[in-house]
Specification:
Glucose Permease (Domain IIA), 5 domains, ten-stranded antiparallel β-sheet, 8% helix, 42% strand, disordered N terminus
Length: 567
């Protein structure tokens, strides 16, 4: 009995020691910056982006060019390597002793050992895009060890490093500043406007009012100190950003708090992010304000379909009830990544004259949480349940373009979709002899965006995550290839070509594919989304003498062009 008791005690002591050591290791884990030059933050954690929160931080290069060293923030091992033409481009994942994973994205190149290993696999598989999972013994790294060179691969619009810290579950991203990586920030957030939404008894918007702000010392105010709004209840939104000293960049905020009559009624915090829920940012910010006015307005009341667990304080849905007989004191506090805060203070009351609600011009009322579909002779479309964040008054119209072709207005891009909608268009008789050239498309500025489509039984079906005006588009033009490689780089590389097509891919931004051959040998390339540039390095033997390059580029409907040249 005693031996059994002693064995149990020793076992519990051993488990306690292991737990303490594990906990000590996690607590003792320190991270250093992922670059060697002074850090300049150009994109902050949980910054508002189109259809997602920013899952990491963006760090500027030292001189605006590719090639700055990117280093491991802590010891560990390379656990994953991704090469993608979209998204993060060339990216490295490093697992650390505390169980967290650091991510380094948009790299120009990996370090020589990793690059050689990856290239061997890509050439053997003849695959440009890869996703490799490694074990801990393949590529261990030390803190500060070179991982690669900063670049602009994937969905990137300039040279920078996208850096993330992910918790051990892999689903939650952590603000690197909360893990001890400090970014220079000596300026408080800037508030550029207030938006007041008049709401009905279902908390649907009746109207909205943009209120300019005045700054008095360190505090923002409204003209006259008191707002009079003709509504029984309102929700608030604030336009805010955090400036970066010495440059044009405006990063996001970390925390937003609303106090009404000195009671905390709403709070949003961005210490961590569940990556599975990131698209719900569309229910957090005013998406229409961004689409039409390019202004980032943080809602201080979540929409009905908002599932984000980022509101530690939420009373009465963040809605403020108004009375004609008493003023309500409102304080909005905005905090940045460094803990600096700015405040907006004002009073609000119900006006004697009620504001007229904006007329709701719509053809269909789609209740929140319901599946909706509509069918006519030449079009049908379906919005699945869960795609809309609140009950929606949906606008639909048939239009005739200048060319005589029918266009279909499916509401407008200011209304976000959480899930894709299905659209089917009838091909006219003259188009059915060559149906493979047709796509469903909408126009974004001066660019036609293709949603592709599958032809069957005289109809073209496609999926889209954007509400807009759609039409059938005949894709008959081949892409265009233009060399941008300087003479000094012809032999050693890299070789660069701009690839342009009359359509862009609405889902990934890229409507072209390619095949690269140098003296008959397949060569992988990398894609820069922002500049539409294809980059590739010649095989090592191509450094001697002149070599034959064959570059074939095709779009999604099979239109292709071949460039044949000696370099």
């Amino acid at each position: 009995m005693f031996r059994s008791y002693l064995a149990g005690m020793l076992s519990r002591v051993a488990l306690l020691v292991v737990a303490c050591l594990t906990g000590w290791t996690a607590l003792a884990q320190t991270y250093r910056p992922p670059v060697r030059h002074p850090m300049v933050l150009t994109g902050s954690f949980c910054e508002l982006r189109e259809d997602h929160f920013h899952a990491g931080v963006d760090l500027r290069s030292s001189g605006g060019k590719a090639g700055d060293p990117v280093i491991s923030v802590a010891a560990g091992f390379v656990c994953r390597i991704i090469i993608s033409h979209d998204g993060y481009g060339r990216a490295i994942h490093v697992r650390h002793p505390d169980g967290r994973t650091s991510v380094y994205a948009h790299l120009e190149r990996f370090n020589p050992a990793l690059q050689a290993w990856v290239d061997t696999i890509r050439f053997a598989w003849r695959k440009e895009e890869i996703d490799l999972v490694l074990d801990r013994n393949q590529f261990p790294v030390r803190q500060g060890q070179l991982l690669g060179l900063m670049g602009t691969t994937g969905r990137s619009t300039g040279v920078h490093l996208h850096f993330e810290l992910r918790e051990r579950d892999g689903f939650h991203a952590l603000d690197p500043a909360r893990a001890g990586i400090r970014f220079p920030d000596n300026q408080p957030p800037v508030l550029t406007g207030l938006k007041v939404y008049g709401l009905d008894d279902k908390l649907l918007p009746l109207f909205d009012v943009n209120v300019p702000l005045l700054k008095k010392g360190l505090v923002y105010k409204v003209k006259g100190d008191t707002l009079r709004i003709g509504a029984w209840r309102v929700g608030l939104g604030v336009a805010a950003h955090d400036p970066v000293a010495g440059n044009r960049f405006r990063t996001g905020i970390r925390m937003l708090r609303v106090d009404v009559d000195r009671e905390n009624v709403f709070e949003w915090r961005s210490d961590s992010l569940d990556l599975r829920l990131t698209r719900y940012n569309n229910a957090h910010w005013d998406h229409a304000e961004w689409v039409f006015n390019r202004r980032k307005v943080y809602r201080c009341y979540p929409l009905q379909g908002n599932r984000l667990p980022m509101y530690p304080v939420l009373k009465k849905a963040g809605v403020i009830t108004l009375s004609q007989w008493e003023k309500r004191e409102v304080t909005i506090s905005v905090t940045d990544q460094a803990g600096r805060s700015s405040q907006l203070r004002f009073w609000i009351r119900r006006d004697e004259k009620m504001d007229e609600p904006l007329p709701r011009l719509y053809q269909f009322r789609i209740p929140f949480g319901e599946d909706f579909s509509h069918e006519e002779s030449d079009i049908s479309w379906r919005i699945p349940a869960g795609a809309l964040y609140e009950t929606t008054y949906f606008e639909y119209a048939r239009l005739e373009s200048a060319s005589g072709q029918v266009e279909y207005k499916l509401h407008h891009p200011g209304l976000p979709l959480h899930k894709d909608m299905d659209v089917t268009l009838l091909l006219p008789e003259y188009a059915r002899s060559n149906p493979e050239i047709w796509v469903g498309a909408y126009k974004d500025g001066d660019r036609w965006m293709s949603c592709g489509g599958r032809y069957q039984d005289g109809r073209l079906s496609f999926r889209t995550h954007r509400l807009d005006t759609y039409r059938l588009y005949a894709d008959t033009l081949a892409p265009v290839i233009r060399s941008v490689t300087s003479a000094g780089h012809v032999r050693a590389g890299p070789w660069r070509f701009v690839l342009q097509d009359d359509l862009s891919d609405a889902h990934g931004g890229r409507n072209v594919r390619w095949d690269i051959q140098v003296d008959g040998q397949w060569v992988p390339g990398s894609w820069n989304h922002g500049d539409k540039v294809l980059t590739f390095y010649p095989p090592s033997k191509a450094n001697v003498g002149r070599r034959l390059l064959e570059l074939r580029v095709r779009d999604e409907r099979g239109n292709n062009v071949m460039l044949r040249d000696t370099l």
